[in-house]
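User: Good morning. I'm curious how zinc ion would be positioned relative to this chain. Could you predict the structure with it bound?
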Amino acid sequence: MEIKFSCTNCGKQLEADDFGAGLTIPCPKCGHSLTIPAPPAATEVSETTQSSAELKVGQQINSQDRFHISLDNKIKGPLTLHELAALYHDGAFQSDTVFSKNNSEHWYPISKIIPMLK
Ligand SMILES: [Zn+2]
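Assistant: Good morning! Here's the predicted structure, ligand included:
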């Protein structure tokens, strides 16, 4: 399920996966630090829904994709999957980092693609 929110500084519309709730990301447009809001309390995401969403993100990744990740509230990238894997192996980021793919405004938790970095 997606959380839609907007930058409190420039008003840019953003989306994040609910895994990212509570994380701080820089606005892709103005760089303002934003905390991803919690999703509406009434919606419960089932295990099944989560794992199929995970699968979907994994299946959509290919070697042409370029990634941006949020590190220390700054956006780093574009990175290839290979560069991302190298950073991961260097311990540059943790599983609670968020990433976006191909300049999308949608941020996912990096834990979704960590299995692909190993
Ligand atoms: Zn902004």
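The pocket of zinc ion is lined by residues 7, 9-10, 12, 27, 29-30, 32 (CB under 6 Å). The chain has a mean pLDDT of 83.
Let me know if you'd like a different ligand tried.
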